[in-house]
Amino acid sequence: MTTAADLLITNGIVMTLDPHGRIIENGAVAVCGETIAAVGPATEVGSVAAKETIDANGGIIMPGLINTHTHAAMTLFRGLADDLPLMTWLNEHIFPAEARLDADKVHTGTLLGCAEMILSGTTCFCDMYLFEDAVARAASSAGMRAVVGEVLYDFPSPNYGPIEKGFDYTRHLIDAWHDDPLVTIAVEPHSPYLCAPALLTEAADIAREHRVPLVTHLSETRKEVHDIREKYGTTPVGHLAGLGVLDANLLACHCVVLSDTDMDLLQQHNVKVSHNPESNMKLASGVSPVADLVQRGVCTGLGTDGCSSNNNLDLFAEMDMAAKLHKASRLDPTVMDAATVLRMATIDGARALGLDRITGSIEAGKKADIIVIDTRKPHLTPMYHPASHLVYAVGGSDVCATVINGRVLMKDRRLLHMDLEKIMADARQIAEAIRSR
Hints:
Layout: E1 4-15, E2 23-32, E3 35-41, E4 49-55, E5 60-63, E6 65-70, H1 86-98, H2 103-119, E7 122-129, H3 132-142, E8 145-152, H4 163-176, E9 183-185, E10 188-189, H5 197-210, E11 214-218, H6 222-232, H7 236-243, E12 250-254, H8 260-268, E13 272-275, H9 277-282, H10 290-295, E14 300-302, H11 315-330, H12 338-344, H13 347-352, E15 370-373, H14 386-392, E16 399-404, E17 407-411, E18 414-415, H15 420-436
Parallel strand pairs: 1-4, 1-5, 6-7, 7-8, 8-9, 8-10, 11-12, 12-13, 13-14
Antiparallel strand pairs: 1-2, 2-3, 5-15, 15-16, 16-17, 17-18
Helix pairs in contact: 2-3, 2-15, 4-5, 11-12, 12-14
């Protein structure tokens, strides 16, 4: 038992999300440096001497949320082109707007996204976008844990140009951020419909060579499935299986339109899935068969997607939507219970990103990625079941403290290490330039 700590979080219900699902009614967490040193009853752990103390005031102490799929810099496009079909939205609005981006704009948009995520309890995110070195720098300076990768596709990128340069850029990112305490690099081909087979196999080879995650959009719409069938004679999942791309390091985002055979392939190859219910609803892509995936044992995390198709980065809202959407679509109130959805947003999200050894639960020896929920509010009173409250009643604005890697980034709803007013002013200036064009 530790006798001294750098940080003590005490006087709250500790939702550990550990393998035993421990809930400590009056608990505390002691942090030394970057690491959780002890977790247990406040009568034991709460007695340690600490340089800094966060009083949860009877609220909930829990692992930070993990956003397994987003495009953080798309905060700059929030509300730019709403209520449109996916391909119209993408080809006529988003791609043209992205053609005007540069590293500085992406850095600003990502800082804005990081601020929003920290304030709403997300401590780790997986990003796919352009100018990802700027994304990595923004995440690092904001103090966020992140898995980032440059989007790769067949047509020239506004960042790297032709795809050969894209592979070079990805290798550069892997080398530059190797062993960083917060940033992990992934290899990220956009999708089977924007990536030739040779691109997909080369990306998979790079990911395997460097032992990093491989991330792609997969089977997001009926049109995608139809087009891939027309071109390759199989589903998008079957297409990746035939190319040898399906593997345990693959995170497949969306997975809305899946056959039983597709789901079996994902299970057999231990592929991880990122479920993005709000984005899929807004773009009318459909309802992913997540309950079937979970039943098969497919590791499934939650993602918000980008702010232009959501339009926020609040994972508490995403949890609420995930649970209710599948109950409604299945006409079964027992589907996607609160405990399952809560794990999707925490420890299962960490597993999906290959980070479950260091984050996703409150356990001694793991990195201190912890949030505190202020439950002294009318909409959170009374509280019978904490997990149910977290999924169905808590919102991102109820998070009162956020700790990442042992560092207190937000306390009493105030960001401690970011100039939020400047970030928002810079984002507004970029938006004015986008609007004028």
